[in-house]
Amino acid sequence: VSLSSVPCGKHTDNTMNPENHPTTTHSKVISHVFFTGTAKQGCAGPPLGLVDIGVSDIAYIFRISLPGIAKYQDKIKCEIQREGRVCIQGVVPEIAIPSDSGCLYRMQVQQLSPPGPFSITFNLPGQVDPRLFSPKFRADGIFEVVVVKLGVRIPTS
């Protein structure tokens, strides 16, 4: 993961809203899908770009849902600016699914984010020091970053 404080490229607000992504119904492929329990409360697949932001006295933490990207984390670019603007860019890879018979499957029903480039931009609640951050890409597809607030002195032990 590369992090920098360079201004991010163009972004549109619909990149953060998975409801704005086009959906396709393939009624001939899947006739019925039923959910129970906690699966019934959410959507069919984990959406790309859901953001949670936490605040402490000295830092902010943000977590972003990036399902299917963990193996390609070296291609994710995260830019943090002093005023608290964060831009994450990357590419959802096209993945062919092999079977035991040697066939490759191409997905007709796309419940996860479709392949291609993406950009997620949001603002933290305040200014930060973009040099003081700690990124971590978790195995569950969550990209987590802690960044220190601007002007805060970090206590030493």
UniProtKB/TrEMBL annotation:
It comes from the Eukaryota. Signal peptide: none annotated. Residues 14-23 have a biased composition (Polar residues). Transmembrane segments: none annotated. InterPro entries: HSP20-like_chaperone, IDM2/3-like. Residues 1-23 are annotated as: Disordered. This is Uncharacterized protein. It comes from Brassica napus (Rape).
